[in-house]
Amino acid sequence: MPEQSNHLTPEMVNAIVRDPDSPYYPTRITVFCDRLRCGTEFTGEFMVSEGMTRDERLGVARKHLVDNEGWSHTDEGDDLCPEHAPAPEQPEACGKCKQPLDPADTRFDGHARHRDTPWCRRCVDFCHDTEIADHRCVICQ
Q1: How far is CA 78 from each of CA 28, 42, 71, 85, rounded to the nearest angstrom?
Q2: 3-state class (DSSP) for residue 29
Q3: Separation of first and last alpha carbons in the chain
Q4: ∠93-69-11 over CA atoms, to 5°?
Q5: Residue of 2, 126, 136 lying closest to 64 (CA atoms)
Q6: How far apart, in whole angstroms, are the C-alpha atoms of residue 117 and residue 139?
């Protein structure tokens, strides 16, 4: 089956439709937002095959909606339009500079978390007042 994330050109669709041996064919699928009283729907034509189940065909439409139209699909089976889709998760950020914490940044002054603190290694590295025994800044606490 052709990759569903790739857009099919009109020439590709024509070639598939005109090939009597092709197992693929366009079908119109409509997905409704499952938020109570929303009423938003998306209708599109998707290339599916005869051997696909109803859920597999719906999966083709859902993948397109999630990848290209801003919809989301929950583990409970709900389809949510862009208005009701949850905001994408933001990576955890440093408590001081607000830059995203990057565990892959292994530099001593990089943006990985410093031990079990809420700060990145870069911000902790900026604290140069460690000579004073009673020093307490926002980073050193």
Answers
A1: 20, 14, 10, 10
A2: strand
A3: 58
A4: 130
A5: 2
A6: 9
Count, residues in the chain: 141
**Domain residue ranges of the chain, discontinuous segments joined by +:** 10-80, 90-141
Residue-wise pLDDT tens digits, 20-48: 888 888 889 999 999 888 989 999 989 89
State both tokens at 83: 């208005």
Per-residue pLDDT tens over the stretch 56-94 = 999 999 999 999 999 999 889 899 999 998 877 777 888
The DSSP annotation for 62-94 comes to: HHHIIIII--EE-TTS-EE-TTTSPPPPPPPB-
pTM for the predicted model, two decimal places: 0.54
CA distance 126 to 120: 10
**Interatomic CA distance for residues 48 and 60, integer angstroms:** 8
